[in-house]
């Protein structure tokens, strides 16, 4: 596993700042995981509906559909103070969940998740851009893998912590925990020392500035291929947010809270997958991160296929293998975006990549919420396997035409296509 010392620029200050950034972000992501998992279970308990529980996740990811606007905001300001401010605002926003008392107020749970998703989407876009100022380009993959491993390690603990707080003190306690993690993240980010250049005013008309990130993805072949692949893969994988409740209920005859146990198994796989991603990156070499996405999606497809088989052991094995693949798929996408995008567009490109990847996921959540009451969940798992597997195959074929370039040439390519 890479350490902050391996990733940071030479000197103790760089190491300190990378540690603060990764530590603060990891704490915040831990709180996010505990929140949306616990609130999804809360919605299930308040309404008795698997579909309504799945929509809780949709509310969380839906704000990313506004990526062009979010990315433009990120590129208009220095990223470090923006991230700190976002986390301070979210610290108060999440406490709106304390006002929910019965099923008639489920809309307020969705509103809280929507607001948190909006803030986290901006945090992710700004954080992706900030990371390029903290580490060397060749270390971006390892930094992303380390951050993802820390996140998945938090996900390993978050379901247990969220479930314990939910079952012992109620969902409001989870909201308080999330509020505290936002505060910790803000303080860590404020302590980071980084030399950020003044943001450049967006060139051209306002509309052109808004879509600049999407246009950059469209005209850069390797980024276009990775985004198309992740869109297809997540179109399939998005069904899991609803189907997993059916797996626990209909397949394993357990309560909705058992989803937390399955999530722990996925988290163990993801921690191991994050560690493995660094080894795969070493073999691939800088500039070949797209193949890491192929590797990750292939594992996810295999895990979903196993999940369709009956039995507790196979269910745990399936989510474990899914977890193994998630870090590689995500790290491959965002490292490619960082390496092949100019500094002035980093926020917009990261936000656009997130939007293009998660829009199909949101559509899948809504679709699966409508289908789950009428279609056998095992059939949906088969459809998921096919979509994810075909997406991985497409990128594997397209990646053969990509030529690895040196960092200086990558920057020239990024500027030329922007």
What is the topological layout?
Elements: H1 4-7, H2 12-47, H3 50-61, H4 67-76, H5 79-93, H6 106-134, H7 140-169, H8 171-191, H9 206-210, H10 212-219, H11 221-237, H12 240-251, H13 259-284, H14 290-307, H15 312-339, H16 346-371, H17 377-399, H18 407-417
Helicity level: over 70%
According to CATH, the homologous superfamily is MFS general substrate transporter like domains
Q: What general form does the structure show?
A: globular
Q: Could you tell me the number of beta strands? A: 0
Whole-number mean pLDDT: 81
- Biggest sheet record: none
Ends distance: 34 Å
Round the Cα radius of gyration to an integer and report it. 20 Å
Structural class: mainly alpha
β content, as a range?
A: under 5%
- Integer tally of domains: 1
InterPro entries: Bacilysin_exporter_BacE_put, MFS, MFS_dom, MFS_trans_sf
Protein name: MFS transporter
Domain Major facilitator superfamily (MFS) profile: 1-401
Keywords: Cell membrane, Membrane, Transmembrane, Transmembrane helix
């Amino acid at each position: 596993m890479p350490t902050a010392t391996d990733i940071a620029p030479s000197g103790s200050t760089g190491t300190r700042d990378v540690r603060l950034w990764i530590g603060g972000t990891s704490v915040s992501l831990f709180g996010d995981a505990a929140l949306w998992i616990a609130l999804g279970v809360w919605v299930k308990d308040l309404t008795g509906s698997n579909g309504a529980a799945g929509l809780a996740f949709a509310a969380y990811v839906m704000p990313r559909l506004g990526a062009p606007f979010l990315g433009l905001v990120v590129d208009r300001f220095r990223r470090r103070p923006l991230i700190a401010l976002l986390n301070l605002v979210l610290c108060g926003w999440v406490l709106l969940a304390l006002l929910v008392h019965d099923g008639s107020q489920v809309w307020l749970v969705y509103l809280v998740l929507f607001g948190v998703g909006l803030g986290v989407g901006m945090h992710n876009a700004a954080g992706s851009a900030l990371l390029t100022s903290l580490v060397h380009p060749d270390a971006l993959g390892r930094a992303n893998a380390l951050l993802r491993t820390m996140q998945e390690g938090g996900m390993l603990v978050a379901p247990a912590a969220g479930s314990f707080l939910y079952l012992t003190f109620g969902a409001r306690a989870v909201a308080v925990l999330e509020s505290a993690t936002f505060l910790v993240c803000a303080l860590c980010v404020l302590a980071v020392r980084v030399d950020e250049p003044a943001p450049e005013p967006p060139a051209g008309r306002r509309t052109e500035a808004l879509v600049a990130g999407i246009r950059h993805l469209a005209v850069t072949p390797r980024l276009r291929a990775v985004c198309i692949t992740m869109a297809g893969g997540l179109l399939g994988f998005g069904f899991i947010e609803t189907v997993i409740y059916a797996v626990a209920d209909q397949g394993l005859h357990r309560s909705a809270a058992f989803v937390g146990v399955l999530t722990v198994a996925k988290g163990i796989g993801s921690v191991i997958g994050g560690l493995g991603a660094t080894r795969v990156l070493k073999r691939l070499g800088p500039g070949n991160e797209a193949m890491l996405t192929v590797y990750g999606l292939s594992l996810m497809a295999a895990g979903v296929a196993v999940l369709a088989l009956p039995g507790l052991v196979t269910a745990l094995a399936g989510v474990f293998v899914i977890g193994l693949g998630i870090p590689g798929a995500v790290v491959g996408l965002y490292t490619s975006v960082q390496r092949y995008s100019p500094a002035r567009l980093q926020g917009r490109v990261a936000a656009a990549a997130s939007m293009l990847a998660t829009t199909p996921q949101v559509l899948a959540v809504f679709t699966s919420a409508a289908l789950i009451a009428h279609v056998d969940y095992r059939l949906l798992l088969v459809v998921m396997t096919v979509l994810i597997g075909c997406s991985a195959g497409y990128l594997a074929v397209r990646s053969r035409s990509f030529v690895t370039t040196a960092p200086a040439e990558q920057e020239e390519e990024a500027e030329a296509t922007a």
